[in-house]
Amino acid sequence: MSNKIKHVFFDLDHTLWDFDKNSGLTFEKIFSLNNINVKLDNFLPVYEPINLNYWKLYREEKVTKSALRYGRLKEAFDEIEIRVDDDMIHHLSETYIEYLTTFNHLFEGTFEILEYLQDKYQLHIITNGFEEAQERKMKSANIRSYFKTITNSEMVGVKKPNPKIFNFALDIANADPKESIMIGDSIEADIEGADKIGMDTIHFDYKDLHNNHGFKRITHLKAIENHL
């Protein structure tokens, strides 16, 4: 139990919003609509690590938003040896964003933990996701109203773990880092980024893969209650 914390900052994708599940449903939809004959069981295990690597490059300012959206699909199709022309890849990249926000699966316990926290703390979002998509995700999933402020990387011009995005979020929340905690799934972007500017942290390790990094760690959102 921490009585000095006044502000709780959440990441969105892979933390509250179940990105992998919603993304899989989106691909199922757009492949069907565009007659792309690809088995999801073959595509997703290849696509997901490629996507994570592109997001890492995007955080490091090594690829643009458009390059990320095209490249992750192009590389995945190439790796499973499915021929899809560039026009269709660009079309799929656009319809993916369009349909992604129509699915709204959240991690188990999301509503319960937000209800638990909202009367005790001010709640906020810090996300590297694209502004238009993140707003639609939160509204579709009925969680937008829980958060006092939303900070996204496009608004600030840098991405987590850059300290500027955390400081920007703290400023608009009128929050002191010593009275703030960051909860997210990425050790590099969320946890180390927030820790470096003096925020407390909780790593949401939903795949239960990392138990030796020294930060507070949970594998289920309800476990936040043990720390706040």
Summarize it.
By secondary structure, the protein is an alpha/beta fold. It has helices spanning 19-33, 40-59, 65-79, 86-100, 110-118, 131-140, 153-156, 163-173, 187-196; strands at 7-10, 122-127, 149-152, 180-184, 200-204, 217-218.
Please give a structural write-up.
It is built from nine helices and six strands; from the N terminus they run βαααααβαβααβαββ. The chain has 228 residues and is of the alpha/beta class. A six-stranded parallel beta sheet has the order 3-2-1-4-5-6, with helices on both faces. The mean pLDDT is 95. The chain has two domains: 7-17 and 106-226, HAD superfamily/HAD-like (Rossmann fold); 19-100, DNA polymerase, domain 1, CATH 1.10.150. Helix 6 links the parallel strand 2 (122-127) and strand 3 (149-152). The termini are close together. It has helices at 19-33, 40-59, 65-79, 86-100, 110-118, 131-140, 153-156, 163-173, 187-196; strands spanning 7-10, 122-127, 149-152, 180-184, 200-204, 217-218.
